[in-house]
Amino acid sequence: LATTYASFLSYAFMPESRSFHNFMSFERTWLDEGGSADCLGRALQALGTCVGRSRREDLRRWAVDLFQQALPSVTNTTSPRAWALGVIAIHEYFRRLSGDRTVNLMRDILTQQLLDAFNETCGEDWEWFENVLSYDNARLSQALILSGRWSNRTEALDVGLRSLRWLMREQTAESGHFRPIGS
Known about the structure:
Layout: H1 2-12, E1 13-14, E2 19-20, H2 37-53, H3 57-74, H4 80-93, H5 101-121, H6 138-151, H7 154-170
Antiparallel strand pairs: 1-2
């Protein structure tokens, strides 16, 4: 299955934009012209996980190459979720290749973009990165917690934990059970 998934990601990759297609028809033709920021983030997460966890050397080498080509593109998006998925992808990548200075710089850039988004939107009763809650919310907090912990950035760790606590309060019903945000 890993080879099938890798083939799909390779086929979805668009070298000119360093991004990935998102929608394919049953006939195996692409239905989108340029993918999406979230698609890019999810592809990076899959590649980073392959680098960090795969036992197959051939898959790791393939994933490193594609990861390094696509990673810079995520900093140019406007999607906090894509940034967060990029940070999480980098964390997985660093399980095996922690000395990569270029990837470390990308983590710093993405972490700062998340912190900036939080600081621009955060208010007294709203401790979040955007003006709305949508899907995959906890990934934003998770990314800052990982980045803050592993790069010793206290502000990132603090904002990650603060935003996660706030999100937990927002998603807890009065009766005390989990009440997820729909999308």
